[in-house]
Amino acid sequence: MPFKSKAQQRYMFAKHPEIAQEFAEATPNIKKLPEHVKSKNHKTTGSVKMAHHKEHHEHKEHKKEHHKKEHHKSEHEDHKHMHKHHHEMKKHHEKELKHHEKMMGHHMKHAKKK
């Protein structure tokens, strides 16, 4: 949303610099902005739109944070799954090793008898 006045521009850069940057990029000619713009009810015309834009911006930021948390949660679950799989494989290899050692013992006993 472009700036409607220089007063709005000053306010936004003072209070909400990130949103103000978006406004500035959407404003075709900042130098030609009037000092103030009043609506029929004497409120700054852009104030309601600014509030809505701020709310929208905060919602986008909240969604970004939520996505980061979900991504981190997913990575954590993947890590837990891999750790569990590694532990199961380790137990399986230990069991196989014991079985081979037992078989080698049987072969050694059998070889000594001959």
Descriptive account of the structure:
The chain has one domain (6-113). It is built from three helices and no strands. Helix 1 (6-15) packs antiparallel against helix 2. The chain is rod-shaped, with a radius of gyration of 34 Å. The protein has helices at 6-15, 17-26, 46-113. With 114 residues, it is an all-alpha fold. The mean pLDDT is 83.
Task: Quickly give the structural class.
Answer: mainly alpha
The overall number of domains is 1
Task: Tell me the overall shape.
Answer: rod-shaped
| Mean of all residue-level pLDDT scores | 83
Order of helices and strands: HHH
Helix-residue proportion: over 70%
Number of strands: 0
Name the poorly predicted regions. Answer: none
- Beta-strand share of residues: under 5%
The profile of the biggest β sheet is: none
Number of helices: 3
Distance between the termini: 94 Å
Radius of gyration of CA atoms, rounded to a whole number = 34 Å
